[in-house]
Model the fold of this input.
Amino acid sequence: MGIVLAFAVGYAVGANAGQEGYQEVIDALRAVGRSEEIAALVAALRSHAGSTLRKLSIVIEGEAEQPLNPGRLLERVRDLMGRAAATAPAS
Done:
């Protein structure tokens, strides 16, 4: 949904400002994308995602010393989701 909104805003700004205004918006967005702040944000998000997956692996596998195995983790989550769907009351 956010991508569609961003596209619509970009299109409207570009249509109202002409090609030169549109190019300024594109250049500004590229500069923001290359900024140190965005790089730091992406690094923090990756670190958080990795930490969260490690913690989730511990909860699902029940073993604190087992390394994260993404293939097994996905299989285990699917198994748990299947069980939850099977025990959910029908609406």
